[in-house]
């Protein structure tokens, strides 16, 4: 069973930064693309970013995070990251990582990001 453990969330002021981590167990992620998603209160889960397999050379971002968020990976640690800069209140959500080819019902607990004065 693939498991995802997200961490690094917290409460920040607008304009602040956070770095999220997601440790994956049960599968070696080196050869797999990885995603970040988020879910705001009362909203559906939405895609945030994808990083390509292996070197992670190719990254794609949702328009609402382009230029502010950067996804990276450390295959030796079976971990992906999401560096989030210039956070805004609308970024408030629970953030999840996921493997595109994994069971679509298999998600971790996520990590809460709250952006507020």
Task: Supply Rg.
Answer: 13 Å
End-to-end separation in angstroms reads 40 Å
Q: Tell me the structural class.
A: mainly beta
Overall 3D geometry? globular
Could you characterize what this model shows?
This protein is mostly beta strands and 117 residues long. It starts with a strand and ends with a strand. It contains no helices and 10 strands. It is globular. It has strands at residues 3-7, 10-12, 18-25, 34-39, 46-51, 59-61, 69-74, 79-84, 93-98, 111-115.
Helix and strand arrangement:
Blueprint: E1 3-7, E2 10-12, E3 18-25, E4 34-39, E5 46-51, E6 59-61, E7 69-74, E8 79-84, E9 93-98, E10 111-115
Question: Care to give the gist of this entry?
Answer:
0% of the residues lie in helices and 46% in strands.
Which characteristics define this entry?
globular, mainly beta, 10 strands, 117 residues, four-stranded antiparallel sheet, single chain
